Amino acid sequence: MDDNYFMKLALEKAKLAYEAGEVPIGCVIVRKDKVIGSGYNMRMSLNSALAHGEIIAIKQACETIGDWRLEDCTLYVTVEPCPMCAGAALQARIPRVVYGAANKKAGCVGSVYDLLNDTRFNHTAQTVKGVMENECSMLMKDFFKNFRQVEKKGYIFDFDGTIADSNYLWEKVDFIFFEKRGMKISPDYGHKISAMSFYEGAVFTKNTYNIKESVEDIMEEWHKSAVFEYERNVKLKDSVVEYIRFLKRKNYKVGLATASNPEFYLPVLKKYAITECFDAFADGKLGLPNKDNPDIYLKCAEMMGVKPENCTVYEDIIQGIRSAKTAGMTAVGVYDERSGQNTDIIIAESDRYITNFMQELEPMINHSKKNSSDL
Fold first, then answer.
1. pLDDT for res 64
2. Which of 113, 188, 243, 288 has the most CB atoms within 10 Å of its CB?
3. Residue of 54, 80, 315, 360 marked active site
4. Is the separation of the CB atoms in 163 and 237 below 8 Å?
């Protein structure tokens, strides 16, 4: 087996990076004609500057043989290694490095600098350049051509009732609030304030029910009750964590558009370790109009740097569906058991309707698998 054979294997790894939306660089490490380590660029997927294909492959190879020294190995990589990866090859004592396409801006195996053949170091490596150079180069060019042509897509999520099973919470907070005052809640109270901001809801409650406390005191009482419940008991809906992580791995922009304040939703997102998946938070702190108005969705799109027409909004209330469509966005209705009599209206006016986020995730996964097989 020759260098071309193993470079083809590295190219297969590079295609996996391409499919994942990563810069397509792949690597294999070979010992006695056997691949003992492989990897591809995963910087975006892992949110790590260290997740280059060579680093991943070196780590795997060391684990395979149980030694940090790879003294009788050859590293094959589709693009000339950067300073970090060339340095890692030296540290691993790899004696031979083979690459395909040159890296004119950051390559350290001859293009910008020749780290592997600087005799001031206590180790050097034989280098072979240009193996399957055209194939490696074309894959990179194709990726960046498509990357520039494809407009960014954004996915905007409401919080309460859409990704979080939390609408019960506000019913609970409302019940406690009115019970404390010996008052009964009107049947349509929850529906009327569902699209309002925290402040708007407090003003409405004070004026409608002649509450003696100030708007600020009402908000403070609600705040304490809600924070306690969010931090301890609120859960995200089935499959939403997997879906949001998938979108992030695919380099889509992800935003949250909610009337809630950060102290409510952030503890829940942190509990599920998906806070970093969001590129934008358009929330109650911004002082935007309620969801009868499209401004919150337009602001979220602006914060993500995505055109409104390239955004998909997930909402469980009809006001949100209508406003998202007014903003020129795709509106997806999300089932929530507390939507009640509005469910039929939401289904009718949404561009599509889902009862579980797996309905969104599975088609995307299948589409990705198909594209991967076509590369």
1. 96
2. 243
3. 54
4. yes
